[in-house]
Amino acid sequence: MRQDLKSAPSAADLTKNVVFSPIRGSGLVEQTVRRLGEAIEFGLLDSGERFPPEHELASRLQVSLVTLREALAVLREAGYLETRRGRGGGTFVQGPQPARTTSRQRASRLSSDEIRDLNDFREIVSTGAAVLACSRASAEDLELLADFLEQMQTASSYLAWRRIDSRFHITIAAAAKSARLVEAETNIQRELGMLLNSYPRHPRILQVINEQHAKIVRSIRDHNPEAAATETQVHVRNTAETLLGMSVALRSAGSGVTAVPAQVRTPHDPANDGG
Q1: Which CATH class is domain 11-93?
Q2: Predicted confidence (pLDDT) per residue in 23-59, tens digit
Q3: Could you tell me the CATH superfamily of domain 103-272?
Q4: How many whole angstroms separate alpha carbon 55 and alpha carbon 58?
């Protein structure tokens, strides 16, 4: 039976609420930079979008004004933000920046056990989100997901595709009407990006992944939690095999040895890839 959540926020609104939710723990400047920078990278904050006034934003993030201004200065220096003076001024999103050259170096330090652990967690989070979305997604949420499917079909580059891909999965979590799931999926997409963003893949492989995405959306639209769980698990497990293969290749390249893990299916088969 479909849950009545007419009063619940849309996926887009919930995602924004999570972006501007309180920041916890220590290293508040660094956490603020990461939170806002990742939101821009994933497209959760659109290019040209204006931030709330500094006093309001500091209150929502529950950080001091000094902390916020330090974080915004770092993001401006990195090219993520710009500040405009005068009437109609404020702090505006510049848009995603080019992928960092350190991605492969960071990825090469991930062990196979760490990658499996990440993907086990992803399977639980992403599958649970898709199942909940079957009963909680609004018409607006489904329209947004369908729009992402179209954008991925026509993406101008692999990195552009990856940004939409990340936002697609985060939006499914938001369609489940769970701020915790949105936060978890955002963290997962950040970690996945360390491996996936540096490895452009053949258009045929991306087409297979797009088809997997479409099956997940169809299951949510049809309010079919069993199908949503199955399609999400297939998608996540195929991505896990791809990540394991990349990880072994990275470490082998560093040691001068060529190796392919036995548990990974052949990478030239598009049906075995994921995103």
Answers
A1: mainly alpha
A2: 988 889 999 998 998 888 888 888 899 999 999 999 9
A3: GntR ligand-binding domain-like (1.20.120.530)
A4: 5
